[in-house]
């Protein structure tokens, strides 16, 4: 087993045994391909997304955990949020600049849940239209500028 | 591509990110292919050769260094150089002076539980801790300097050790957050600073990182600053200040190497 697989195996065990509230890993997707996970995410009670279900796609390179995972929303319901583009791309610093090998799938999910929970108004990023038209398919190929941590 | 002399015009419909990031990757690979992560021991003469065309200010400082040091070991300029330089020099000194190794090993062993108690998830930190401990055990068995060098030049092992040293810095800064909050620039908490400037790979180190690592591991270090400051000598700084370090690093703006007397 490579160090990437060993690490993901550990993360999978921890995430299935002791999942944080509103985070459910789709073990069927993982059993087919260890380097691509699908995680179901539920909007936190009391937040603007209460009762909504979302899907996150995680893709891991052989250099994981040194390379950050490629993470985006997929499926029919992409949350309407000032940091989430309508194509599922997420503007979140720990997914690129601030990624650390000590972070994990669990900590990424928790950050995304918290990002959704602190949202005051459901709206798309101001540059959604132009971004979705010109961006790469892979959100990690975007050079993100993180300017606003308050939403 | 625009012909030479044409003025660059930004096209908002075009995606420039791919090209920019590809260029960054090319530069990273170039740095990686040209240099070992940690070099062999080299004569300080190589430093003088590097500055052959530089102004006298640098040459005077190198002369000053030559009066106190004879060799250096270069580290790769990938933003992790402080951790690799300190980590290597620290373990290497125990090969010749093993008296304090048992105490160092105990500090290193216990550090994992301290990090867990600070809220770092055990399953992500234990791999990094194990790699660090494995290197310490090699030193305990009196491995050769070449074997230690091989560990630090294996990208995987070397990076695992760097991550652990970064976590130690983060843990110490967070444990002493009340104190370090005074030294952090911008509107950031100590935890945010650690998340952004300590834990991610490739983020460069400053005084605050050095203070944290030398204090938490109880291994003092002397840093010789070779910078543009107007003086004929390098500025020396011991961490902690009143200590008698047995390892020394050379700092040039943005980079750390190892020095030997």
From TrEMBL, chain A:
Catalytic function, reaction form: S-ubiquitinyl-[E1 ubiquitin-activating enzyme]-L-cysteine + [E2 ubiquitin-conjugating enzyme]-L-cysteine = [E1 ubiquitin-activating enzyme]-L-cysteine + S-ubiquitinyl-[E2 ubiquitin-conjugating enzyme]-L-cysteine; S-ubiquitinyl-[E1 ubiquitin-activating enzyme]-L-cysteine + [acceptor protein]-N-terminal-amino acid = [E1 ubiquitin-activating enzyme]-L-cysteine + N-terminal-ubiquitinyl-[acceptor protein]
Keywords from the named record: Transferase, Ubl conjugation pathway
Record-linked InterPro entries: Ub_conjugating_enzyme, UBC, UBQ-conjugating_enzyme/RWD
EC annotation from Swiss-Prot or TrEMBL: 2.3.2.23, 2.3.2.25
Keyword Transferase appears in the UniProt entry: yes
Any Gene Ontology biological process: protein ubiquitination
Protein name, UniProt field: N-terminal E2 ubiquitin-conjugating enzyme
UniProtKB/TrEMBL annotation, chain B:
Leading EC class: hydrolase
Pfam families: Peptidase_C65
Catalyzed chemical reaction(s): Thiol-dependent hydrolysis of ester, thioester, amide, peptide and isopeptide bonds formed by the C-terminal Gly of ubiquitin (a 76-residue protein attached to proteins as an intracellular targeting signal)
An example Gene Ontology molecular-function term: cysteine-type deubiquitinase activity
InterPro entries per the UniProt record, alphabetical: OTU_dom, Otubain, Papain-like_cys_pep_sf, Peptidase_C65_otubain, Peptidase_C65_otubain_sub1, Peptidase_C65_otubain_sub2
Protein name: ubiquitinyl hydrolase 1
EC nos: 3.4.19.12
Interacts with free ubiquitin, annotated site positions: 211, 225, 227, 251, 256
Domain OTU stretches: 70-261
Organism: Sinanodonta woodiana
Active site residues of this protein: 78, 81, 255
Keywords: Hydrolase, Protease, Thiol protease, Ubl conjugation pathway
Similarity comment: family membership: Belongs to the peptidase C65 family.
An annotated GO BP: proteolysis
């Amino acid at each position: 087993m490579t160090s990437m697989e060993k690490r993901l195996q550990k993360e999978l065990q921890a995430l299935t045994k002791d999942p944080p509230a509103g985070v459910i890993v789709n073990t069927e997707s993982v059993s087919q391909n260890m380097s691509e996970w699908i995680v179901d995410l539920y909007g936190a009670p009391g937040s603007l997304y209460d009762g909504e279900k979302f899907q996150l796609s995680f893709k891991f390179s052989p250099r994981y955990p040194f390379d950050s995972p490629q993470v985006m929303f997929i499926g029919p319901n992409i949350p309407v949020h000032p940091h989430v583009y309508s194509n599922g791309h997420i503007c979140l610093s720990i997914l690129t600049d601030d990624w650390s090998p000590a972070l994990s799938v669990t900590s990424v999910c928790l950050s995304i849940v918290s990002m959704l929970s602190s949202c005051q108004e459901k709206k798309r990023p101001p540059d959604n239209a132009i971004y979705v038209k010109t961006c790469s398919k892979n959100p990690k190929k975007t050079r993100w500028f993180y300017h606003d941590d308050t939403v | 591509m625009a012909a030479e002399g044409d003025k660059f015009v930004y096209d908002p419909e075009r995606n420039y990110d791919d090209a920019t990031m590809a260029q960054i990757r090319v530069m990273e690979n170039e740095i990686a292919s040209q240099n070992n992560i940690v070099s062999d021991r080299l004569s300080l003469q190589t430093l003088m050769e590097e500055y052959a065309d530089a102004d006298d200010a640098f040459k005077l400082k190198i002369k000053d260094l030559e009066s106190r040091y004879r060799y250096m070991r270069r580290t790769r300029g990938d933003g992790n150089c402080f951790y690799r330089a300190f980590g290597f020099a620290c373990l290497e000194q125990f090969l010749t002076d093993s008296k304090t190794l048992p105490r160092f090993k105990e500090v290193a062993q216990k550090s994992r539980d301290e990090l867990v108690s600070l809220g770092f998830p055990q399953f992500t930190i234990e791999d990094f801790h194990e790699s660090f401990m494995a290197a310490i055990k090699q030193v305990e068995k009196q491995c050769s300097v070449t074997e230690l060098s091989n560990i630090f030049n294996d990208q995987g092992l070397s990076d695992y050790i760097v991550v652990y040293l970064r976590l130690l810095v983060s843990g110490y800064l967070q444990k002493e957050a009340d104190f370090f909050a005074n030294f952090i620039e911008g509107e950031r908490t100590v935890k945010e600073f650690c998340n952004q400037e300590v834990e991610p790979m490739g983020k460069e180190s400053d005084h605050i990182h050095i203070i944290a690592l030398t204090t938490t591991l109880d291994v003092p270090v002397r840093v010789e600053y070779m910078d543009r400051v107007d003086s004929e000598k390098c500025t020396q700084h011991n961490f902690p200040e009143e200590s008698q370090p047995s390892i020394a690093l050379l700092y040039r703006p943005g980079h750390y190497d190892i020095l030997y007397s």
